[in-house]
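User: Here's a structure from my thesis project, written as structure tokens. My advisor, Dr. K., wants to see whether a designed sequence matches the one we expressed. Can you design one independently, without my sequence as a hint?
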């Protein structure tokens, strides 16, 4: 995160830290328990926060974009990450399992319709959930749009982003034999699921380090290889989803089904210099989505903590407080 500018904006403008009024583990079947927390006003406008990754987990920071007097704020750790169990596990862990989990949460909390709030992979999941359950979605706020296409994966794992950060790209590819570099997702998948814990930690630190180094615009962040349980779960889950092309039926599934959510109002917030999820995806989405309001944020990259992106997210959640959803 941008400790000098992004974090100051959070301290000065976002809502103060709040604690959940309810924490629980929810059995969603197939051996998975997911961590669920609820904050703010239990009788307020419900909003569910869909975190990124896959495998990123939710954080207390995400609660602070919502007026706790107005919103019923719902966060959960998706299968295999955060406080959910089994940790770092990819069995019975697909996009459609996650969409089923969101519906289990909605029914458990007796919510008819809610706002979807998601960034990066969270935007993907928001779009696919809304297309599956449009009548349950009252509004969408999505950031750092990722449409789960081959073009986007090729950009980030095929050398596109590497042309801007050659020193980081060299670290990312250096441990992969040259004969395997034509398909780095497959090469990393082989090593992240090798069953050798030391090898999995080694390659997960590089996989996560590559994304983290490019997430914040202007940070000039060093490539930090940190071997933790978090990075192992994050990297395994992300690679698992990307290796399986998001478990989508077609490469352009989201845009091809935009008519299913055309009547749902939305705000799309996109960093102009997002190196992880290039702005072309947000632009294409907004062009096809009649009720989408695209806000392109100059001097901003991918991270929600960046000043311009944080400001736009907060402005949107405050604006729609006065709209009858």
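Assistant: Designed independently from the structure alone:
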């Amino acid at each position: 995160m941008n400790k000098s500018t992004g974090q100051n904006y959070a301290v000065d403008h976002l809502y103060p830290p709040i604690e959940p009024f309810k924490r629980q583990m929810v059995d969603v079947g197939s051996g998975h328990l997911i961590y669920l927390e609820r904050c703010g006003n239990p009788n307020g406008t419900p909003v569910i926060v869909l975190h990124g990754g896959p495998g990123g987990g939710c954080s207390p920071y995400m609660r602070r974009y919502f007026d706790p007097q107005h919103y019923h704020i719902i966060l959960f750790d998706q299968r295999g990450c955060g406080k959910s169990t089994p940790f770092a596990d990819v069995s019975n862990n697909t996009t459609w399992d996650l969409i089923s989990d969101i519906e289990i949460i909605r029914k458990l909390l007796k919510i008819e319709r809610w706002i979807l709030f998601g960034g990066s992979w969270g935007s993907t999941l928001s779009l696919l959930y809304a297309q599956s359950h449009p009548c349950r979605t009252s509004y969408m706020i999505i950031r750092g749009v990722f449409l789960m296409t081959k073009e986007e994966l090729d950009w980030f794992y095929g050398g596109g982003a590497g042309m801007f950060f050659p020193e980081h790209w060299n670290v990312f590819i250096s441990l992969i034999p040259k004969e395997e570099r034509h398909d780095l997702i497959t090469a990393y998948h082989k090593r992240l699921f090798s069953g050798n814990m030391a090898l999995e930690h080694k390659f997960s630190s590089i996989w996560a380090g590559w994304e983290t180094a490019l997430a914040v615009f202007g940070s000039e962040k060093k490539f930090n290889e940190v071997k933790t349980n978090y990075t192992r779960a994050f990297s395994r889950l992300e690679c698992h989803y990307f290796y399986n092309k998001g478990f989508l039926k077609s490469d352009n599934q989201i845009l091809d089904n935009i008519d299913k959510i055309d009547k749902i109002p939305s705000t799309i917030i996109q960093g102009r210099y997002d190196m992880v999820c290039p702005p072309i995806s947000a632009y294409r989405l907004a062009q096809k989505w009649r009720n989408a309001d695209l806000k392109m944020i100059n001097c901003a990259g991918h991270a929600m903590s960046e000043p311009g992106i944080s400001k736009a997210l907060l402005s949107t959640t405050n604006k729609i407080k006065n709209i009858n959803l």
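When you compare it with your expressed construct, this may help: The first strand starts at residue 22 and ends at 29.
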